[in-house]
Specification:
The protein is of the alpha/beta class.
Length: about 270
Amino acid sequence: MKDYYKILRKKIKKWLYGSCPGFAGSFPYFGTKVFFPQGSKIFELACQQGIYEIKNTELLLKLIKPNTFYFDVGANIGLMAIPILNRCRTAKVLSWEPSPNTLPSLTLTRENSKFQDRWQVIGKAAGDFIGQLDFAIASPELGAFDGFQDTKRAGPTKKITVPVTTLDSEWEAIGSPLVSIIKIDVEGAELQTLKGSTKCLQNNKPYILLEWTLKNLQAYGYESENLLDFAHEIGYQVFTTSDFIPITNPTSLKLHMLKSESFLLVPDE
């Protein structure tokens, strides 16, 4: 019976905030009104899961340090930023989101939140240089799959041009503050983002939670072991997020990628 009512509540939540006139278009999340594009798959997942990507969210909440910054790269509608802002009252967040499918909703959420003084939205893509790049966008409800390359995960796409920046340049622009966590979910461009953040990484040694999946890497011509190579270069180790098993070779990484898309980079002691 409990399961029945739980499923019913999820269905009501999806209907109320997804379709009901006067309510549709935003929903409460950790005490914050979150706006989203009509039909958003991320909103649907939040309804199904209760807390979006709960294991990753809980990990971020455990790793964030007071009076530091959290860089949320590939923020979508902000569901991986709001819990941090709500629970850690001294943390500040920079959210990167370049997609015109999603950026207006994220901006509206930030503007209507109580976190304006601790939350900044950067409407640019993160990469390894400053300039512009082509960007493949799908339909608005599938904005979570938008990126530099068409990964074929979201149906038909069209190309636009978006501004590109680096984490290092944005970090220096705000005075090179302490950064304790970086989350990167940019549909295959994670390595480019990391390469544009080496100064910040060397100075802060933050934890890095990132998506790393063959579904996206193939579109960029990357190999799975490229993550291990980069981690070694900057003095980091790669761990699984479920049980914190260290990954030391390409074969192990490929096997773990069969069951998870999330990995944690931890600085060497």
